[in-house]
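Each lists chain and fold; for instance:
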Amino acid sequence: MDDAVSKLAAYLGDRIGPKLLDAEIALGELTVAVARDNIPEIIQFLRDDSRCRFGSLIDICGVDYPDREERFDVVYHLLSPWLNHRIRVRTKTDAATPVPSIVGLFPGADWFEREAYDLYGILFAGHPDLRRLLTDYGFQGHPLRKDFPLTGFVELRYDDTLKRVVYEPVKLMQEYRSFDFLSPWEGMGTAIPGDEKAGAAPDRDGKS
């Protein structure tokens, strides 16, 4: 299998040339990097070329690297059932620059691209209906971005008076606490309040 993947990587290097920015084999699978403007051309080549035949789109997902100028990776997972190969295609973008949609090549990309838009805010140019998919109407932000607050911005509850679900700003009843994730019986270096005498030596009568 590794030999077949290596041959596939070499073949793509010959056919795609400079449009193939990088190729890496890890755990028996090939990952290639291309510029975002070349995504439709490369995906179509991988689908239609007789040496590739990646006719099944498994997934499109996002990855967030907030310290990078182009903070997002968009990763396409393709499968060739005929040749028993898998490949990942990666490209980079930022929050304002759209990636060309591949819905025209794989209709199943519709919901995958909507999911990436909903959860990361990644834009796809040419998508027929780019709107949120998993979050609710009026949701603020994109919950899989690493700078999205863990509490979100609003909370919802059912109001018995209004007989409907209402949205309210998040209210924290207490500040977040810092946990050391150690057992309180073994990991604490100080006495528990109220237990100051626990370490005192007993006197002659057996009293602390």
